[in-house]
Amino acid sequence: MVVPTNDADDTHVVHKAVMTVEVTSENSSGVDHDEKFHEYVGMPSIEYYLLVCQAESLVEVHQRTGTKWEYAFYTNLTDSFEVTALSLTMRSSDIYESVFWFFTI
């Protein structure tokens, strides 16, 4: 989770998380897309929920815009997206830095 610096005083409880990132696997994908999604979007401070696939280049971004949630996905390592709440641009290549995929033929 990404939290504002004024929330860092309590090391045991996060009160104002802005972004949550889940790395999904074949086993966790259903829970991450359903149960955890509904849990996180119900938290007023969460503005971004990212799902990062560990098996391929796929970053799913859920972004709160007012009372609605917008969805986008990125499959190329050259893709990037804005995280305005944190004043940064995230690149898929940064998320997957030092990740190597092994494929069997």
Automatic annotation (TrEMBL):
InterPro entries in UniProt: Nuclease_put_TT1808 (IPR012296), Uma2 (IPR008538)
Top-level taxon of origin: Bacteria
Residue ranges of every copy of the Putative restriction endonuclease domain listed in the record: 13-85
Annotated organism of origin: Fibrisoma montanum
Name listed for the protein in its UniProt record: Putative restriction endonuclease domain-containing protein
